[in-house]
Amino acid sequence: MKKKHNDSQEKRPLLLTTGEPAGIGMDVVLLLAAENKLQDFLRPIWVTADANAMEKRADALIAAGVLKICPTWQTFDIDDLKEEALTKQISQQSTDTDQAFVLLNIPCDAPVTSGQINIDNSAMVAKQLEIAHKLATNQTVAAIVTGPLQKSALIDAGIKLPDGTMFSGHTEFFMQQSGCEKVVMMLANQAMKVALVTTHLPLKDIPAAITAENVRQTVQIVIDDLREKFGLTQPRILVCGLNPHAGEGGHLGSEEIEIINPVLREFINAGVDISEAMPADTLFTSRHLANCDTVIAMYHDQGLPVLKSHGFGDTVNLTLGLPYIRTSVDHGTALDLAGRGGASATSLYQALIMANEMADRSIVNIPLA
Ligand SMILES: N[C@H](C(=O)O)[C@H](O)COP(=O)(O)O
User: Fold this and answer.
1) Is the Cβ atom of 20 under 6 angstroms away from ligand 1?
2) What is the pLDDT of residue 81?
3) How much is the mean pLDDT over the chain?
4) CATH of the domain at 91
5) 3-state SS of 83-145?
6) Does 291 lie in the same domain as 164?
7) Ligand 1: residue whose CA is nearest its atom 9
8) Which one of 122, 178, 219, 288 counts the least CB within 10 Å of its CB?
9) pLDDT of 367
10) Pocket test for ligand 1, best of 174, 317, 354 (most atoms within 8 A of CB)
11) 33 and 174: one domain?
12) ipTM above 0.85, yes or no
């Protein structure tokens, strides 16, 4: 593949959604901005938030002694701007390099109180995701980095996924908005990367979701994105079984024999460095992890507790298989810390670093027309 570098592509912004306004999404942006860490990225950082709430949160953090200095930013009302005009207007006006970030103002419908969810503001949270999706799809921004939202608040407000089903997370929202049949949730930190065959499902619904097609699509997306987004040309993958002891030869469950292993053997026979289903309890030991780039787990709480116990706060959540780059923090809204201090911005910083690296890699891989 021929390579080219394109200056305008390189300078495309990273779009950061602050998510739930009562949570710590704005706090962690302000913390990074005050430490001049948003300037580490050779790209503009665009942040979606309510402008008034952001100012009040900065005041609260200064009053709490958490921020020594108040970072400065430039605010744009995006409601008035069509996406095509947005980049032009912002790049014309944002000439002041002292500004830590560009704030895309999405007003809340109700006043924001730190730590207190108000479901009247859930539409504003959903709007952040819609705008992020639009700006990533039309390539105005190089990547989306999402802050935490409160899933229950969106559900209680009656906000649905694009297909009309219950809101269950960014992952499913961006998948449906993009028209993807399947995406893969992966969480990554220094210790390991864990990708999931199923995402936000009740435990009782998981066995039915472990189909040959789901396993096959998951593995293929993981392979493709490890190559494309992480630059791993020959990824080494270990796969958890669904049942204890990976089914103990069929005595503790048959999914491994009937569904999972036949699919994994297709990949093994095609030359992919991937295991058959392994007992999850021993897979996650250093002996196995030392020789593996990614673990594929069958469900959320099979893989993520192990990963988060090795680095909660330094972990990045990302969505594989989307037509754009999306990374995210590994934590929730931490309502008890909002506006008070105590929130850590390390996961957001790691999510920005990962999105930035992936965006740089995607420029190098743009084929010449
Ligand atoms: N499963 C995610 C985690 O453990 O961090 C979290 O629920 C966020 O999911 P979304 O990115 O789909 O909102």
Assistant:
1) no
2) 58
3) 91
4) 3.40.718.10
5) HHHHHHHHHHHCCCCCCCEEEEECCCCCCCECCECCHHHHHHHHHHHHHHHHHHHCCCCCEEE
6) no
7) 169
8) 288
9) 41
10) 317
11) yes
12) yes
